[in-house]
Amino acid sequence: MGWLQRLSEGLTKTRDKVRQSVDRLVGRGPSPEMLDDLEASLISADLGIRTVDRFMTRVRQSRGTGTPEGVIDILKGTILETLRTCEAEPLERIIERTARPFVILAVGVNGVGKTTTLAKLAQRLTQQGRKTLLVAGDTFRAAAIEQLEMWGARIGVDVIRHRHGADPAAVVFDGLAAAKARGVEVVLIDTAGRLHTKSNLMDELRKVTRVLAREVPDAPHEVLLTLDATVGQNALSQAKQFQEAVGVTGIALTKLDGTARGGIVVAIAEELKIPVRLIGVGEGPEDLQDFHAKEFVDALFEPP
């Protein structure tokens, strides 16, 4: 099964929810009550209030609401317009024009797939011939260090680690020193999952970024926030908090497979304009791909 087919299959629940809402509207005619129902349904699919508002205005002004296809075409165009604002230049191109080592700092709350996403990205960069290094900055969980070491062994990438409970900033310092000594092109730093509402943990993350900036000019060059698509609007809240704390430069959206809340990427694009770098629809390395607005919209509305 190809990537686009997996993405389309992963968005089935979101697509079905949107389609059912449109079919109900067209089947009974665009009365004010049905338009209100459609609006509520699209908002519940996490498509973002402002995007839904624009769509509803266009539907009310359009004469193309007599068929489901007419309404869907308006919705597709509105969503594509929003998503194009968060299309991102591929990381590889940014890496090419940045002084070495290029530093990627992975952040996010617990359980979103941050470590796995970082390892998959390291694997991709390695397969492209780039010398990479993983840094186990999550020292709070021994299992996190072990997980990263397992990934490193699997993909042939060295891992810099300290003991469980060590100062994450010290691990990062040693990781950068190793990268400089070994001529590493890309350093990928894992960090402990932390609730975006815990100020002490966010302060620790700021400490890590200060160490990076002191040791490598303009580092971190990429602050990659991993978000779980299944949590809907809470993902948007997380993005806002991490953006304020450490200046997120890119988003990796995981677990799009099987969620009815795949529209959250639209809300993120609408509210924050943060580039969406990567999206994931499965466990395999090939299931993490660059985000492209047109591909996403096509997958959202066309069955696999």
* Uncertain runs: none
Query: Which strand-content bin applies to the residues?
Result: 5-15%
Give the topology string: H per helix, E per strand: HHHHHHEHEHEHEHEHEHEEH
- Would you report the number of β strands? 8
- Main sheet: which strands, in order across? 3-2-4-1-5-6-7-8
What is the averaged pLDDT score? 84
Based on Cα principal axes, name the global outline: elongated
Describe it for me?
With 304 residues, the protein is an alpha/beta fold. Helix content is 54%, strand content 13%. The protein contains 13 helices and eight strands. It has helices at 3-10, 12-28, 32-44, 49-61, 68-83, 91-96, 114-127, 142-155, 168-182, 199-215, 233-246, 264-272, 293-301; strands spanning 102-107, 132-137, 158-160, 186-191, 222-228, 250-254, 276-280, 288-290. An eight-stranded mixed sheet has the order 3-2-4-1-5-6-7-8, sandwiched between helices. The longest helix is centred in the first third of the chain and has 17 residues, at 12-28. The chain is elongated and about 65 Å long. The N and C termini lie close together (10 Å). The mean pLDDT is 84.
